[in-house]
Design goal:
The protein is 39% helix and 13% strand. By secondary structure, it is α/β, with parallel strands linked by helices.
Length: 419
């Protein structure tokens, strides 16, 4: 496989071209990644040239509408779906809350919803709120020692009254990639809807939503090198079950009926640049002409680029995890370097000794290394694993634009701080 050209990658991010950019090694990507140049160009162009109410007949309004249409079309193409199956809202947290409201009428008292205690709270809290309407919440609990979910336990939880299962594709703390196909199959045996949270998954791989088996899939584009937009996808059958949450006159508008807040014009228009980013990476690493002559789609090109991401990130994480074994007082959460195929590049550490996670994060920041400490909205996971949510863990989250030199710099700094 062609190796990812990180020098070319970083040339497409303005943040890395500014004076003094090499002074910062940015490893807080799980909290929000840097925006790529094509996205910023589209965003700047929208705000400079046609930031008016879109879809009017005069030129700036027409151009604004066309730019938004391009943003919708780009996300649909990257996911291998249709724009009619998408809602682009202000955030994944809000999209999930709206989705729960849109499905509430489907649940009768005594019906059951299964959630995990591994997830970000956004994919848990909105479903738990339905308890006040008589819905029973059943919690798929992690192993306290590992933070892992065991599908045999899920088999024991789902039953004839299970109406919905919500889970994360990848933990935003321990980094485990959960077995989507197996989880979906268990839920399907009882006819339950399946909601997949991809916020921590999407920065590393673009899901083929139509083949995933999921009914709904959500992620945030500010985690995928673009503007702050929440993406909600649903298949045709599942969307038909939802009730309109927008204005009554938008009940038949597939782009608006699950977005009561209304679309963010410039942020959505800027998403066209995300497709350009993936195409630039593809053409730099592959023979685009040959690929297109074979019928390649934007989704297939994106998947090919994501395979380069994953191979590069696996090398980074192996170097990181292996190096961490030499640093005292840091306990790795999640799978080790011998299980890279089933974990993302999110690496969290439990801290012991005289230093705290927040203190280490602060000391790294003074050295120009960006990480974060905390619970990362996975409070229930922290409590299950016996970790004080107030202190949390030290989280290091490289992505494809990070380098092995930055990993080495991080390891050296950690040894200096706690060694």
């Amino acid at each position: 496989m062609t190796e990812l050209d990180t020098r070319f990658v970083r040339s497409l991010f303005p943040v890395f071209q500014r004076p003094g950019a090499t002074d910062l090694a940015f490893f807080e990507n799980a909290g929000g990644a840097c925006a790529c140049g094509p996205v910023l160009e589209h965003f700047e162009r929208f705000n400079r040239d046609y930031k008016v109410q879109p879809y009017g007949s005069f030129e700036p309004a027409r151009m604004a509408g066309e730019a938004m249409d391009a943003g919708y079309a780009t996300i649909a193409a990257l996911l291998g779906t249709r724009t009619e199956n998408l809602t682009l809202g202000p955030s994944t947290t809000l999209n999930t809350y709206v989705l729960a409201e849109a499905l509430r009428h489907q649940f009768a008292p005594g019906d059951e919803i299964v959630v995990t205690n591994q997830d970000h709270e956004a994919n848990i809290g909105c479903w738990r709120k339905l308890e006040e309407f008589g819905v029973l919440i059943r919690e798929w609990q992690v192993d306290p020692a590992s933070g892992e979910l065991d599908t045999t336990r899920l088999e024991e939880l789902v039953g004839p009254r299970t109406r919905l299962l919500a889970f994360t594709l990848s933990s935003n703390v321990i980094g485990t990639l959960n077995p989507v196909a197996e989880i979906v199959a268990i839920a399907r045996r009882h006819g339950a809807l399946v909601v997949g949270d991809g916020v921590s998954y999407a920065p590393h791989a673009m899901l083929d939503v139509e083949r995933s088996g999921l009914d709904f899939y959500l992620f945030s584009t500010y985690k995928t090198f673009a503007t702050h937009v929440g993406v909600l996808w649903g298949n045709d059958r599942a969307l038909a079950l939802t009730r309109n949450q927008g204005h009554f006159f938008n009940a038949d508008n597939p782009l608006a009926r699950l977005n009561p807040a209304g679309p963010q014009h410039g942020e959505i228009a800027a998403l066209a640049g995300l497709g350009e980013y993936f195409d630039l990476l593809y053409s730099h690493h592959h023979d685009t002409q040959a690929f297109e002559s074979d019928g390649g789609s934007a989704h297939q090109r994106t998947m090919a680029v994501c395979r380069l991401f994953q191979a590069h990130e696996s090398r980074l994480v192996q170097r990181l995890i292996d190096g961490l074994t030499e640093v005292p007082g840091l306990q790795l959460l999640g799978r080790g370097s011998d299980q890279l195929a089933t974990r993302s590049s999110v690496v969290s550490l439990r801290v012991s000794g005289s230093r705290s996670a927040s203190d280490i994060a602060h000391q790294l920041g003074l050295r120009g290394i960006g990480v974060r400490a905390g619970h990362f909205y996975a409070v229930r996971l922290m409590e299950a694993m016996g970790i004080d949510p107030g202190e949390g863990v030290l989280r290091i989250s490289p992505v494809h634009y990070n380098t092995q030199e930055e990993i080495d710099r991080l390891l050296a700094a950690l040894m200096e701080i706690v060694g």
